[in-house]
């Protein structure tokens, strides 16, 4: 059986709505930030299906005992926001994954080469092999940043098939690179835009997501 990269674009009205708000160039920073937060929440909700580990148990209702399913607190869950723009998706993700550890990874693209430069790495030396990892980065453009992040995670014992990427706009160059290297990976994104221009921006995209989130 061949394992393939799976890219989900959930057909949800809330995701479409907040994507439209984020795309609009006239959306001010305060509203852009809210739109990205909401996208983080609803895309994480979708990504959590069949990914969050559960445990079967029994609960006693006021009337009788009943079989029940709970989130398994024994299995570690980690969120890895790729700074800066990935921070915008964090609040929504954390609202659904309150027990997750958060490991920050700071990457910035060199404006000429478009290669990522790492300026902060708070990843642990080793992850437990069962760890569920959710990476947040709103823009997957040339793929340089997400490939760097994946390589750092896999070196530390993360299983790509237990990893979910939450993004807002994904473009073919990034998806092709991820597919070639990490076929078991699952990506949740609000849209796939076909074009990356010669400056490395996704078209139509959202513009510079980090600048719009932080008003810089
Ligand atoms: C943006 C974005 C991604 C990256 C995607 O970060 O947040 O991390 O570009 O581009 P790529 O797929 O071509 O690597 P940027 O370097 O602009 O930093 P910022 O988040 O601090 O604005
Ligand atoms: N990073 C962004 O913020 N926007 C893009 O379109 C591409 C990379």
TrEMBL record:
CDD domains found in the cross-reference section: PRTases_typeI
UniProt entry keywords in alphabetical sequence: Allosteric enzyme, Glycosyltransferase, GTP-binding, Magnesium, Nucleotide-binding, Transferase
Keyword field contains Cell membrane: no
Control of this protein's activity: Allosterically activated by GTP.
A Pfam match: UPRTase
Residues annotated to bind 5-phospho-alpha-D-ribose 1-diphosphate: 84, 109, 137-145, 208
Cofactor note: Binds 1 Mg(2+) ion per subunit. The magnesium is bound as Mg-PRPP.
EC number(s) on file: 2.4.2.9
Gene Ontology biological-process annotations: UMP salvage; uracil salvage
Record's protein name: Uracil phosphoribosyltransferase
